[in-house]
Amino acid sequence: MPKSKRNRPVTLSKTKKKGREHKENIVNSIREAIEKYDSVYVFTFENMRNLKFKEFREKLKSSCRFFLGSNKVMQVALGRSVADELRPGLHKISKLVRGDSGLCFTNLPKEEVQRLFNEYEEYDFARTGTLATEKVELKEGPLDQFTHEMEPFLRKQNMPVRLNKGVIELLSDCVVCEEGQPLSPESARILRLLGIKMATFRLHLTCRWSSEEFEVYQEGLEDSDVESS
């Protein structure tokens, strides 16, 4: 009887004992999921928000198992070649685990999975370095949306302000951010105060594997990425 690949020892060198054990536990968990679920999806994400993703995962916990973390560890668990893949064809999705990626194991119909991922998006405040989606400019005059206690903080954000009879006054027009330009720490803070959300947390399916078929969803992936051993 052939020896089970799932029980094959995995070597993850150059790590401390605790870190190595953690990685080996992830590998074993992924390999157990491969046995349990019919399909495996690779997905990418943009503007990750941990709390939002936790809510999404919680919503699907009865039908899906998600993994995020080291791409290398996930690749090892799936098998990076025909020789070490747990099931035929898994090395193909292993090659597409790169960048900001994760794995989703499920028994849901593929049409339902595609709908869930395509429809999902959550808006949030942008962080430093995010490209502004629009120009935001504040005009000279009173800033009635802020209380007078905010005046010292606004000055620290390089805003030309002063208190005038208990009301914060902008001394000149102030461009908070320009469309397409990275947000500075000060710009990100001001946008949050203004309640302007410029970041959208999205999930994108890259590919799907099942015992019957392998599908690539994202355009631009080279054939050699998935066909070579």
TrEMBL record:
Name the protein family.
Answer: Belongs to the universal ribosomal protein uL10 family.
Tell me the organism's taxonomic lineage: Eukaryota, Viridiplantae, Streptophyta, Embryophyta, Tracheophyta
State the Gene Ontology BP annotations: nuclear-transcribed mRNA catabolic process; ribosomal large subunit assembly; rRNA processing
- Region Disordered: start and end of each range? 1-22
Function of this protein? Ribosomal protein P0 is the functional equivalent of E.coli protein L10. Component of the ribosome assembly machinery. Nuclear paralog of the ribosomal protein P0, it binds pre-60S subunits at an early stage of assembly in the nucleolus, and is replaced by P0 in cytoplasmic pre-60S subunits and mature 80S ribosomes.
Instruction: Tell me the leader sequence span.
Output: none
Q: Which InterPro entries match?
A: Mrt4, Ribosomal_uL10, Ribosomal_uL10-like_insert, Ribosomal_uL10-like_insert_sf, Ribosomal_uL10-like_sf, Ribosome_Assembly_uL10
Self-association and partners:
Associates with the pre-60S ribosomal particle.
Matches recorded under PANTHER family? MRNA TURNOVER PROTEIN 4 HOMOLOG (PTHR45841:SF1), MRNA TURNOVER PROTEIN 4 MRTO4 (PTHR45841)
Question: What does the UniProt keyword field contain?
Answer: Cytoplasm, Nucleus, Ribosome biogenesis
List the protein's name.
Ribosome assembly factor mrt4
Q: What is its main location?
A: cytoplasm
A single Gene Ontology molecular function, please?
Answer: RNA binding
Entry-linked Pfam families: Ribosomal_L10 (PF00466), RL10P_insert (PF17777)
Q: Name one GO cellular component term.
A: preribosome, large subunit precursor
Q: Which residues form the Large ribosomal subunit protein uL10-like insertion domain?
A: 126-196
- Where is the sequence biased in composition, kind Basic residues? 1-20
Q: Does the keyword Nucleus apply?
A: yes
According to its UniProt entry, this protein's organism is: Coffea arabica (Arabian coffee)
Q: Where in the cell is it found?
A: Cytoplasm; Nucleus, Nucleolus
